[in-house]
Structure prediction request, 381 residues.
Amino acid sequence: MSIAIEATGLSETQRQIVDLAREFARTRIEPHAAEWDRTGYFPRDVLDELGRLGFLGMCTPEAFDGMGLDTLTYFLALEEIAAADASIAISVSIHNAIPTTMLVRHGSAAQQERWLRSMARGERLAGFALSEPESGSDAGALATRAVRDRDGWLLSGTKAWATNGGTADLMVVMARTERGISAFIVPTDVPGYRPGRPEDKMGLRASNTVAIALEDVRLPADHLLGEDGQGFRYAMEGLDVGRLGIAVQAVGIARRALEHAVAYCAERRQFGAALREFEAVQFKLADMATRVEAARALTHAVAGRIDRSEGFTTQASMAKLFASETAMWVTTQAVQLFGGYGYMRDFPVEKLFRDAKVTELYEGTSEIQRIVIARGLYPRG
Ligand code: COS
Prediction:
């Protein structure tokens, strides 16, 4: 059995996309991931290359120059990228999930023409700014303001932990208007958009994470995305898709840690035998493999729901919760199996362990996922 995605059961298109993603990940990402992690370098050129190959418009309709893929194929490709470097995967995931979903569902024809098309072609990298220093889990408490300014808008406030905030070409920024929370398309070269220094993070160190000061950012009226006051709903819808991207990223991290552990336990000898000969090690590897397979299967089941146009909010939170806790558990076991070597930066499982942690935190902590799941058990009205 293969730990990676098995080619059986995939369509010809799915196989081609997975092969392309795997080859790119193997040659253009993985060899550099440790160095980018060490130096905190964000490789924009690699994102641009992924964009030219179509990976920044995976589910965007072909009418807007996207690949128009089904959700499962998107997940398969994203897992390959995540297994090579979770930092690259998060940029790809956020771009494909949140701003893209919002523009596809709620953008005007003119906005789709202007922004979505270039995003799908990989000419513009996009991000999403919801969290603020005083509003993380309680996203509805955000304080960034958007006030009417002649025939446009004036935005002011501070955003926190924005992925791609210092490197993207445009951000979808959530701000409060008189009517409630609204979504705005903010090109990052507008006056008053001020990204801070990249955060010094535990993991995902090659991913660009910044605070953003919005100092009287003036936007034309047509930068309001969808209806004034409906932004919170759009953000939650976007996060439903985004959380699945995190679940897939977590599966990629866990799978890679398992692959390393399996190889190491075959090679490393103690007490006259390879580690894989010891039953305690076998049991650990068996549990790791079972959890990776289960996390992947749960995530893929939600892809089916999306493609059948069924509701998936609760299931997305279940997949994110289970996959992220799997990634943390599996990477912890991998470090344990590597022993002292597992604690060293020279060996790959230490990075995977650090990268795994954030999957339990961002796009909604595990506690928020449990709230969403519990609410799904008692639907309103
Ligand atoms: N899809 C569509 N609409 C949704 C939705 C979803 N998944 N979830 C909530 N909504 C809508 C609700 O229907 C409600 O609409 P009405 O006011 O018209 O009834 C509105 O949004 C408010 O929902 P709710 O009352 O559930 O909001 P809460 O303030 O209780 O917050 C949680 C809900 C906790 C789920 C939300 O704040 C959350 O997800 N927090 C975590 C934020 C997060 O993930 N941050 C990561 C940062 S990503 S940069």
